[in-house]
Amino acid sequence: MIVRQKRTWRYHSVPRLILLLCLITSTAASIGDRLPEFRNCLATCIDQNCGRGNVVIPIHLRLLLWTCPTNCDHVCQHIITDQRLARDPPMLSPVVQYHGKWPFHRVLGVQEPCSVIFSLFNLLAHRKGLSQIKERIPSDYPLRKYYITFGYVGIVSWIFSMIFHTRDFDFTEKLDYFAAGANVLYGLYYTPIRIFRLDQRKPPVKAALLRLWTLVCILLYAAHVLYLTLWRWDYTYNMAANVAVGVVTNILWSSFSVKRYRKLKKPWAAWPGMIVAWIVMAMSLELLDFAPLKGLLDAHSLWHLGTVGPTIWWYNFLVKDAQQDIAGERLKA
Description:
Layout: H1 14-25, H2 31-34, H3 36-49, H4 59-63, H5 68-85, H6 113-136, H7 144-166, H8 170-195, H9 205-231, H10 235-264, H11 271-283, H12 285-288, H13 299-306, H14 308-332
Helix pairs in contact: 3-5, 6-7, 6-13, 6-14, 7-8, 8-9, 8-10, 10-11, 11-13, 11-14
C-alpha cells in the first residue's frame, strides 16, 4: 500500500477528509488520534489508495472485513509509531494509543492475536471443566445443572471475546461486553445457591428464595443491557458494575472457603479463597496497561492468560465439593 506524505490537498480530497473525521470521531479519542502526523498520514493514504479502483487488499484481510480506510488507519498507526521510536533524542512515551487501543501488529488480519489465543485457552479450560462436571458428578445431583450452565456461559463469553479481539467493531464489542457481564453475573447467581443451598426443597422458604433470586438476577442483567444499549454506552459504568458483582462474589466464596476449611480440615476446601487471590492478582495486570511488547503482548492479554489456571482449578473444586456433599448425604442416610 502506497503512503507518501504530502503538504497540499486537492479538491477531491475533501470527501475523504470527511470520511477520515467520521472514522476518528466514531471511536474513543486517544493521544494518537490527535497527532497531526497521524491525521496527515491517514488522509494521504485514503486519498491515494481508496476509491480509485486501485485498491488491493489481501483476501485474508477482506475476509475479516478490513476495508481500505481501516487498513490505512492500521498502517499509519505503525508508520507513526516507528517514526516516534526512531527519534533522536528518544521520546519519553513514543508508543501511544489510537482510538483507545495500543498499536498491535496484525497476524493474518487478527487485530490482537495474543488476546485471541489466550481467550481460546480459557474457552478450552471451560470445555474441559464442563466435561469433568458431566462425567464425575451424578446427573441427579441438584447443583449439577447450575455448574453445567456455568460452563456453557463461560464458553460463550470466551467465544465472543475471541471474536472481539479478532476484529474490533461496535457490534463485536457489545457482544463481548454483554457476554462477559453475563458470565460475571451468573457467577454471582449460582454462588448463594451453593453456599446457602437454595436448591434444596426443605425448608419450603428456600424454593421461594431461589425463585426470587433468579428473578432479581434476570432483571439486573436486563437493566444492565438496556441501559448500555438504549441509554448510554458507558465504559466506566460497565467496569464498575462488573467489579462490584465480582467483589461480592469473591467475598462470598472467600468466607465460604474459610468456614468450609475449618469444618473439613481438607486442603481442597481452601481452594476458593486461593483462587480468588489468584484472580485478584491477575486482575491487577489491567491496571498496568503498558504498550504491547513486540507489538503483540499487552497487559490485557496477560490478564486473559492469568485466568486460565484459576478456571481449571475452579472446576476441580466444584467436582471435589460435589463429591464431598454427596458422600455426606450418603452417611446421613
